[in-house]
From TrEMBL:
The keyword Lyase applies. It comes from Basidiobolus meristosporus CBS 931.73. This is Chondroitin AC/alginate lyase. Residues 60-323 form the Alginate lyase domain. Transmembrane segments: none annotated. GO terms for cellular component: periplasmic space. It holds the Pfam family Alginate_lyase.
Amino acid sequence: MCDAKKASFEPYTRYMDPNVVEMLAKRQRHLVPNDYITRIKKAANNCLKNGPFSVTYTDRIPPSGDVHDFMTQAPYWWPDSNAENPATAPYIRIDGKMNPECTELPNQKQLENMALCVSTLSLAYCYVEDSRYLKHAWDLLRVWFLDPQTRMNPNVNYGQIRPNCSEGGTFTGMMGTRGLVLVANSVLLIKTAEYEADMVQLKQWFTEYVNWISESELALRAKRARNNHGTFYYIQLVSCLYFLERYQEALDHLKEFFQQTMKRQINQEGDQPHESARATPMTYLVGNLEGLIYLAQIGDSLGFDGWGFHNQGIKRAADFILEKRCCWKYEPRLGMIVRTMIHKYGDQDGKYSQFLEGEDLGSANNLRAAGMSCLWTLPQSVRPA
């Protein structure tokens, strides 16, 4: 991920069930500490100062010649130092070493900033019903998706390009559009009669994007990947289908993922070999596990239980990370993962609680990891009616 701005109160990957958010905001408000309402209002007020954002706000034009095409550069690819001519040197992969050239292409950062603002504003609107949050969220959505002058074309044909290798993008390019998941997940929170026409147009954009995901060879290569790229392919597809209310299709793809793809990701020990082999293994182990959790959570909304698949693969992957965490750089997102494990599997041997007791909850990183999940997560004792 290239220079991606992240909200200070939530992890990048998290699922919000709109029905649960509505229950908490309207009927179970006492379950949410007032401090968290204050914090989400503060975050939303900051978002009012940001934007608009657009894929067209750049002087770098994709090979297609169309500035509306989303374009990023592969982050771990560098000019071959052994090439005779540096200007035409093919790019080679150096895992874990970020090429600063990728920050010169602003599309991913623009998308993520827009998505995080829309997500924050949507959540805040549910709790405080400030019309400014609703209006600004839709203003941002119009610029990115609907305005003919600034809209993004619904494809990722030029994601993670590799200079001097080919003109097109690669199957890894969909990692740059993960921000679309935040939009698809949170925009249902601001579905109002006032913006009904905009919602119709937005759904048309996502319908076209689903068509690209389902038919493009670049996207289908991501689907076949055995690592995090496969996971995030399904996250984007299922999230978009859920937003479009195509629930049976979303459910079919969820089953496909848990029955086929997930089995190739986690071994008997709970390791995710494709992730632990990376230059920064903890980042990728935790990142892919967050993706698995997301898919299981959206499965909950569809009446599908993904938590038990592959001999409780999600739990085994979390346990492996906890066991091996001293071998790698500490990852603050572990706190939220461990809380999720307690919520879904219990803590019979007390190891999860023991881990949480050892956390430095006063650190900025851990506050970020712990997040504000109480704004969209029901306690175990409460279930939607």
